[in-house]
UniProtKB/TrEMBL annotation:
Record's protein name: Cell surface protein
Pfam family, one: DUF350
InterPro entries: DUF350
Key words of the record: Cell membrane, Membrane, Transmembrane, Transmembrane helix
Family note: Belongs to the UPF0719 family.
Gene Ontology annotations for the cellular component aspect, listed alphabetically: plasma membrane
Native organism: Halalkalibacter okhensis
Length: 138
């Protein structure tokens, strides 16, 4: 095992980690912008449904970022793929949440604490993230 190789590439690890964490924060922030209620306040008040939904969104985002990291050829490529994937994931989530369930306001159900709906939407975010992640390749 050549320890010098790892020491020489450690800076790349740190840079990719920092950029990925920033992209994660940006994606999470954008998700919070499209949510019609304060997730922070709801979670602080003990709303498990909101917590499950947010956790699913974040997990789906991590899956997408992981794929972007694996398939990128440099930092610019990583940022471009990650931002495209974040936007696609948000759009698909909104389509699923609002268009396919026209007769039920799922956001209101989650805000009211409906754990089943929160878990479903969080799970859908993970599944959509997996599909989006699988499409990031060369």
């Amino acid at each position: 095992m050549d320890l010098t190789f790892y020491l020489q590439t450690f800076d790349h690890f740190i840079i990719y980690l920092a950029v990925s964490l920033v992209l994660f924060a940006i994606g999470t922030y954008i998700f919070k912008l499209v949510t019609p209620y304060s997730e922070r306040a709801e979670i602080k008040n003990g709303n498990t449904a909101v917590s499950l939904k947010l956790l699913g969104k974040m997990a789906g985002l991590v899956v997408v970022l992981q794929s972007a990291i694996r398939h990128s050829i440099n930092l610019v490529d990583l940022a471009i793929w990650a931002l495209i994937a974040i936007v696609i994931q948000i759009v698909l989530h909104l389509v699923i949440e609002y268009v396919l369930t026209r007769n039920t306001n799922l956001a209101k159900e989650v805000e009211k604490g409906n754990i089943a709906v929160g878990l479903l939407l969080g799970g859908v975010s993970v599944l959509v993230g997996m599909i989006v992640a699988a499409t990031i390749s060369y």
